[in-house]
Amino acid sequence: MAIYLCVDELLKERGMSVSKLALEVGITRANVSNIKTGNVKALRFSTLDKLCEVLNCEPGDIIKYQPPCCGESVLAAAENGKAMREAEEADGAGAASEPRAKKRPIVGIVPALLPDEASFQVRQNYCDAIIAAGGTPLILPLTLDMSVYEELFPSIDGFLLTGGTDIDPHRYGEEGTSDKLGEFTPSREEVECLILSYAYQFDVPVLGICRGMQMINVFFGGTLYLDLADQFCPKENCPLGGIAHWQKEDYSKPTHFVDIVRASKLADILQTDQVATNSMHHQGVRKLGPLLDAAAYGPDGLIEAIEVRDRSFIIGVQWHPEFFAGEKHMGCIFTSLIQEAKRCSRRARTAVANSCVFSCRTKPCLRSFDLPKELHFSRETG
């Protein structure tokens, strides 16, 4: 089905010309022509967002799917399409007495890879946390066939990067080694890089947990301590004995507090400046990536949460909130992820383009990731 842009109705309602609209949006002459001809595929997502802001509308109000007939104007085609949809809704009203169920956004979960067993692994409580927050969990495949993700990603509204084994230090320029390092999983790392590239370009929400937070930092140009016990020096006023970052207690038991940075997105979510967490990691953020802000610190000064500065929701936490999800005190983290996923599913990204080019060249930091330079994503909504 063809897809095109139609702003005629809204411009008429507001008594605004295309030229005035272009001036307020701040776009080029070429894009003025694209607006007039309805060429939505030629517009950037940021331009579409700005159009919606100026016209005070949703993307679905200006992006249409009913193709114009021969000799028919774009506006007339849109009016016909609206009439057809209203007729279909009227026909369906008698057949279904109950309102249509609200969509649960799909959250793609990156599994842990167990190379020796040739299997994936995802703890049940990751899925439970997504379901309890109102989402639909989808465990992602790990493959080097990028065409799989071309088909899959446009159907996904958010991502969860889970915990797991250590990240290859060469990913963040570390030439040293440590006997504390576990086995690396390059295929998983490459898929996570692709996810972060896609999420950064289209502002798709991502929650990184433990290793997932570390991966966000590495992707955006940060580094890690190979092993906290060997390399990390706690701050001077750290509590006596320091912090046990790999707790012996059950993981459902919090073992230390973290201080939340007040101006952070995480503070808005948790609505507190301190929270009790569990801890099960031997690595941590050493140098913060340039596009990231620290959102929480442990009592020893270690960064415990991070967030991408110029995106709505790419957040990482070093602890495991899935053990405190649902109605417990960490449930709001997953609820916020689902809320952002719902917002994402309504954005122009989901409607635009049967063949939208996604270029990894524009991403902040790929380092040694071996990824294709261009991927083509295709999605239809209706």
CATH fold descriptor of the largest domain: Rossmann fold
In the residues, how many domains can be counted? Answer: 2
SS strand fraction: 15-25%
Q: What is the second-level CATH architecture of the largest domain? A: 3-Layer(aba) Sandwich
Query: Gap between N and C termini, in Å?
Result: 10 Å
At the first level of CATH, the class of the largest domain is: Alpha Beta
Which blocks of ≥5 consecutive residues have pLDDT under 50?
65-85, 94-102, 348-373, 378-382
What number is the mean pLDDT? 75
For the biggest sheet, the summary is: 9 strands, mixed
What's the short story on this structure?
By secondary structure, this protein is α/β, with parallel strands linked by helices. Helices cover 35% and strands 18% of the residues.
